[in-house]
């Protein structure tokens, strides 16, 4: 999973962050100095505000116990919810692929982690819904186009529609080349507009992208050819 963290300059936030980092660094230096002089039990006034709410030894034991003793299994309710949500999400998009089985597997692992965090041997519907909300959030954040989730953006940086347009333009270039040997840009535009219903601007953008991807090149002005294929 990918979560974007946007770092925007803000004087108030930046001052708090810098102050925290600097004070934490000083506390660490004091601890190292005390350890070298073997004065481990001494109180450190500067430590106020840096003590975690839970003892780290307790957290270590909690995590170790959960990892070694808790093996959650999906409840019938969780299976039903995840199946229904997966199918519903897949059928919502007309011209894109919102999620694949890979995202379903990620959701299952998150649901199991939620149950394990509760030290529960059963993955409930609530665990499954929590996991789905997390996956939905990150997908909308990093792979949405015009408000619609498209997993191809995450996998290749290109939407399903854009990929289809690239394939149409590439196939048009190959077809024209097999017939005329010389591929004029205007011929490619005309074929894609008449046959595929593409807009001229989209065809020209696809030509530029195919050249940047190294699939076609321009041997002379306004003429195109494919690279390394017949």
Q: Rounded to an integer, what's the Rg over CA atoms?
A: 28 Å
Order of helices and strands: HHEHHEHEEHHEHHEE
| Span between termini | 39 Å
Shape: elongated
- Overall pLDDT: 84
Question: What can be said about this structure in brief?
Answer:
The chain has 9 helices and 7 strands, in the order ααβααβαββααβααββ. The protein has about 230 residues and is mostly helical. Among the domains are: about 75-155; about 160-225, Arc Repressor Mutant, subunit A, CATH 1.10.10.
Structure description:
This protein is mainly α and 230 residues long. Among the domains are: 84 residues; 67 residues, Winged helix-like DNA-binding domain superfamily/Winged helix DNA-binding domain (Arc Repressor Mutant, subunit A). The chain has 9 helices and 7 strands, in the order H-H-E-H-H-E-H-E-E-H-H-E-H-H-E-E. Strands 5-7-6 form a 3-stranded antiparallel sheet. A two-stranded parallel ribbon has the order 1-2. It is elongated, with a radius of gyration of 28 Å. The chain starts with 10 loop residues before the first helix and ends with a strand.
Features:
230 residues, mainly alpha, Arc Repressor Mutant, subunit A, 9 helices
Task: List the SSEs and their pairings.
Layout: H1 11-36, H2 56-69, E1 73-74, H3 76-92, H4 101-117, E2 122-123, H5 125-142, E3 144-145, E4 148-149, H6 151-156, H7 160-180, E5 183-184, H8 185-196, H9 200-212, E6 216-220, E7 223-226
